[in-house]
Amino acid sequence: MIELIINPVAGNGLAKKIGQEAGRLLEQRGIEHRFHLTEAPGHATVLAREAAQRGAETVIAFGGDGTLTETAAGLRGTRTALGIVPAGTGNDFVKTVGTPRHWREALEFVLNHPARPVNTGLMNGRFFLNVCGIGFDVMVLDYAQKAKKRVRGIWPYLYGVLRAVAAFRPKPMRVTLADGTSLEGEYMICTVANGRYIGGGIPIVPGADVTDGLLNVQIVKSVPRWRIPFYLPALLSGKLASLRFTQSYLARQCVLCASHMRLNLDGEILPVEEARFACETDALLLHW
To answer: Which residues contact 183 (CB under 8 A, 6 or more apart)?
Structure first.
């Protein structure tokens, strides 16, 4: 049994359209399936958990990264595999695992690739799949959300970058890794990553590996605001780690602390004072 979880508003209605087409294709092939539309934030997690309890072999998420994360959270620790058909604004996690972007190709990819385990993450016990961060990136997301209603892909994020350059102020942070390494200072970005991409395709941590049992922690020291535009090409091309004021680490666990911190958790902005991250090894089965 395959179950489809579709966010009807993802991609300005694109997910619903292609979900219905995918359902018809499965019916034509005689593949037993169920069709579900999400009704509110968090509903995909409930639907996925119920599908796993029914013994579904695979649950396919139709939507963006938010729908994907919610669906994966419901399948965490089960024997039901996750499939992905990207239909949102950014579709970042699929770029890490190689899922095709066109819905028909993505569906064929799920049907023809065996499920393999991947790592996931927890932040204060809360599930995440892709990338978390604090600092400049959060301000970029604030502005990008406003542009997502008009354009897709990387363009909302680029708009957010340009707006954030003018308004950003670095904040003091403390980062502590599982091996006892402690870093404290004013940082522009601190990224904790399981996946590689953010913002519709920006390779923020291109070396991240969803099978290594570790999180990538990348810290960018503060620079004068007028210099930020000169480093944007490095950000967009995946070369941020090569800059002299960037520090990169691998850790199974880490802790971030900052006053009045706003944290990006797979695209959702959360207010926290302390963020405790942990990598969960082989916590999810994924067709990839």
So the answer is: 174, 175, 176, 219, 247
